[in-house]
Design brief:
Blueprint: H1 7-16, H2 26-29, H3 32-41, H4 51-54, H5 62-82, H6 88-94
Length: 96
């Protein structure tokens, strides 16, 4: 099966038809931002998100749960970058 690998093309395609996520490269199916674009266009595109991402997405409310996942990921990254490397706080946050 041919997989779309150009990110700009995939973004445009998903903006017009979220179900095109099915044909996106695996890395794009695992990208929360691209999956969110697909979900906003067509909620049924959930089924084409990676299995890994689907673990974090509530099927009853996929858009809100994915937004929450993205926010937590960004917060974790921000905190990780601001704290000293030897901090015990980083170790406890990383276990989340």
């Amino acid at each position: 099966m041919h997989r779309f690998k150009d990110k700009e093309f995939v973004i445009k395609a998903l903006s017009k038809n979220g179900l095109d996520l099915e044909y996106a490269d695996d890395s794009f199916q695992n990208d929360p931002y691209l999956v969110l674009i697909a979900l906003l266009q067509n909620i049924k595109s959930y089924q084409f998100a990676s299995e890994e991402l689907q673990k974090f997405i509530n099927k009853d409310n996929p858009i809100d749960s994915l937004i929450h996942f993205i926010q937590l990921t960004e917060l974790h990254t921000k905190l990780h970058n601001q704290l000293p490397n030897n901090s015990t706080q980083i170790k406890s946050i990383s276990k989340l």
